[in-house]
Amino acid sequence: LLGSVSFWVLRFTTVPVMIVKPESGDATVRKILYPVDGSTPSEEGLSLAAGLSSILTIPLYLFHVTESGYKAPKHVECSMSALRERGTEVELMVRQGNPKERITELVNSESGILTVLGSETATGIDVVKMGSVAEHLFANTIMPTIVVPKKPYPRY
C-alpha cells in the first residue's frame, strides 16, 4: 500500500501526481490507458493523457466499463473523434463489469501500461470518498499511474 505521505499527497494535490512503485522494475511505457466514465474528473486528465501519447509517440487507449452491454456512451465516442482530428492515435476498449476490477485486470495483464486517471481533489469529508479506482489500482498493481485532480478553484 501507499505510505502515509503518498496517501495525503494524492488526496490534497492540485496538480497531477505520478506514482511509481519500486517493484515496477522496468516500467517502460508502451501504451497509455485512460479510463473514462463521462464524469468531470474522468474528463480532466484526457488532454494530459493525449499529450503524453503524442510526445511519447505511443497509443492512447480509452477504457470504458459498463454494467451491461459493450457499447460506449456517445460522449466517449465524441472524445475519440476529437482526439483523432488532432492526430492522436487512440483506440477504445469497452468491457462489462466492475470498473475497479476490470481496470486492474487490464493493467496487470501486460507490462508497459501507464494509467492516467482523473480524480476529485479531496478536502474535509471528501477524503473518505476517495476509496476510488485510483486507490484500488495503487493497492493492486505495480505499473506507474498518474492521477490528475479536478481543476482547482482559484485561490485568492
Task: Describe what is shown at a glance.
With 156 residues, the chain is an alpha/beta fold. It has helices at residues 4-12, 40-44, 46-56, 74-85, 99-109, 126-129, 133-140; strands spanning 17-19, 31-35, 60-66, 90-96, 113-119, 145-149.
List keywords for this structure.
6 strands, about 160 residues, about 20% strand, alpha/beta
Spans of 5+ residues with little confidence (pLDDT < 50)? Answer: 123-130
Helix content: 25-40%
**Any idea what the radius of gyration is?**
15 Å
Strand order of the largest sheet: 1-6-5-2-3-4
Number of helices: 7
Helix/strand order: HEEHHEHEHEHHE
What fraction strand? Answer: 15-25%
Describe, in plain words, how this protein is organized in 3D.
- With 156 residues, the chain is of the alpha/beta class.
- It has seven helices and six strands.
- Strands 1-6-5-2-3-4 form a six-stranded mixed sheet, with helices on both faces.
- Helix 4 links the parallel strand 3 and strand 4.
- The longest helix is centred in the middle third of the chain and has 12 residues.
- The protein is globular and about 40 Å long.
Give the arrangement of secondary structure elements.
Elements: H1 4-12, E1 17-19, E2 31-35, H2 40-44, H3 46-56, E3 60-66, H4 74-85, E4 90-96, H5 99-109, E5 113-119, H6 126-129, H7 133-140, E6 145-149
Parallel strand pairs: 2-3, 2-5, 3-4, 5-6
Antiparallel strand pairs: 1-6
